[in-house]
Amino acid sequence: xxxxxxxxxxxxxxxxxxxxxxxxxxxxxxxxxxxxxxxxxxxxxxxxxxxxxxxxxxxxxxxxxxxxxxxxxxxxxxxxxxxxxxxxxxxxxxxxxxxxxxxxxxxxxxxxxxxxxxxxxxxxxxxxxxxxxxxxxxxxxxxxxxxxxxxxxxxxxxxxxxxxxxxxxxxxxxxxxxxxxxxxxxxxxxxxxxxxxxxxxxxxxxxxxxxxxxxxxxxxxxxxxxxxxxxxxxxxxxxxxxxxxxxxxxxxxxxxxxxxxxxxxxxxxxxxxxxxxxxxxxxxxxxxxxxxxxxxxxxxxxxxxxxxxxxxxxxxxxxxxxxxxxxxxxxxxxxxxxxxxxxxxxxxxxxxxxxxxxxxxxxxxxxxxxxxxxxxxxxxxxxxxxxxxxxxxxxxxxxxxxxxxxxxxxxxxxxxxxxxxxxxxxxxxxxxxxxxxxxxxxxxxxxxxxxxxxxxxxxxxxxxxxxxxxxxxxxxxxxxxxxxxxxxxxxxxxxxxxxxxxxxxxxxxxxxxxxxxxxxxxxxxxxxxxxxxxxxxxxxxxxxxxxxxxxxxxxx
Amino acid sequence: xxxxxxxxxxxxxxxxxxxxxxxxxxxxxxxxxxxxxxxxxxxxxxxxxxxxxxxxxxxxxxxxxxxxxxxxxxxxxxxxxxxxxx
Lengths: 556, 86
Hints:
By secondary structure, chain A is an alpha/beta fold.
C-alpha cells in the first residue's frame, strides 16, 4: 500500500500547500495579461522574479530553485531522510530550463542536468528519473513512483513536478492558437483557449510498512492508469478513447467519489474530449472541476499540484468550483462544479491528457483501511527481440525507404520521432502482434527539435514560431507516433536519464511490463544530431534481470 | 498568377516536408486538406498560416479563416495576390 507522507505547493499564490488551499478558497488567482514580441496578448499565472538573463549558470536556475524549495518543505514535513539509498527522486517536467537555448546553453538546458543538481542538493545517492510525458508527466511520475515502491525498489519516493514559462513555451502555444488572451473558462461555451502557469509541487510517498509516520498519513494512492489515444500527436481523440480507457482501468465505485479533478484546459477540444470520456465511463453525474482558471496550465507540475489541492478539498469536505465557468459548453451533460460545495465522500479521481495522445488517471482515497494487494508478479523467461541502430540523418531516411516506405508522415517528424519510428518498425517486424506499451528513455529529451524551434523565435524582428516544430518539442511525441502507427492504446511514457543506465531502465521497463508487453529502450538524438536507438520488445512479466541483460548486450 | 502558383507549391512542399511530391503533382483545384488531394492536417494548416505571414505579410487572426483560404492552391494564390503586403 502506497501512502502519502507529505506535500508542498510553491506557486504564485503561496509557498506551502496550506497557503495555496487558503488562496483558492478565498477566490484568489494570479492570472495576469502579458504580451509577446509580436504584440499578441496572453494571460498567465507567473512568478514575479528577476529576469532569467541574470541567472548564474553555475548555481541553480530559477526552475531548479523552486523545485528545491518545494521539495525541501515536503521532505521536512515527511520526516524522511533524503540521503537514504532507499529514497528515490522523480522529477516531472516538460521543458525544464529550455529558456537557456536562447543563449546556446544546450548542456545546461538538459533535463538530466537539472535533476542531478536537485538530487545532489538533497544528498540523495540514486540517479534521479525524469518523467517527461507531456501534460500527463506528473501523473505518469506518480504512477511510476507508486509502482517503484510497490515493487520494493525504494521505501520512499519524492515526486517533484515543475515547469516555468518562457518565450519558447508561450510562443509555441501561441502559434498553435491554443492560448486565450483573457482568463480561461474551462468547460464554458465561450471558452477560447488556455492560460499557462508556473509552479513547483512535491508529493512524498512511502510503502506504509516502512513509514514510521503512518499515524499521520491519510491518503492512499489506490491506482493509476495510462492509455494512448493512438489518434493524433496534438489533437485529443474525438471519442475520448484514452481517457475513457484510463477511467475504465481504475477500480471506481462512483458512489464513493467526491469529484473528478479534470484536466479542463479550456481549449475547445480538450474539454469536449473529457466530457465524452467521463460520460462514456458512466460518471457524468459525478461533480467535476478544473483548477486551470486559478493556476493556468502548470504543465509538468499540474498533476501533483492538482492532486494535492484535491486532497485538501476532500479533507475539508469541499468540492471546488470551476473559476471561469458559467454555461456548459460541451456536448455531454457532465456535472461541472460552478461554486464550492460540500461533500462527505473520501475518494477522488485526477484526470490528465496531453500531446502525443497520452492520457492518465489516478484514484486516491482518504483512508488507511484500503488494502491493495501487490500486482502478482508471475515472472517467466521469454525470448526478447532487440534492435540497435546508430544512423546518420541521411542513413535514417534510407532505412525508412528500405524498411518502411509507406508512411509519408515520417518526413514531417522531428529527428527523435524519426529515429524511434524507424527502429520500432524494424523491431516489430520480428515480434508477435500485441497491444504494446511504449516506454522510451534518453539523455537529450527533444533537444534537436527544441533547437530548431528556438531558431524560429531567436530574433524578435524575425518572429515566426513554427507550429510544426513546436509540437515535437516534447520527447514523448515519439511514443505517440509509434502508438498511432500501430494503434497501440495502452501505456506510453518517456523518461530522461543522464546516461543509459541499464539498471534503472530495466527496473522501470519490468514494472511497465507487469501491465503488458512493451516496446522499450534508449532512443537518443543529441544536440549534434548523433542518433542512437536500442530498443527491445519485452513480453509481459519479463524480469528486470532479463531486461537488464538484453539492454547491456545491445548498449554494450 | 502562374508564377505565384508555382512559387506557392514549392513553398508548401518545403515547409510541410512533402517528401516525394513535385510541384506538378499538385492539382491547383484539388482540396489541400482531408482524404483527397494532399491530405494535410490541422498542424499543417497552422504552418500555412505562418507561411502566409512570413512570406506574404498576411496575418490571419482567426485560424478558422484558413478553412476558406486553404481550400485549394488556386484559392490560396488568389487570396494572396489580393491581400499581400510583401
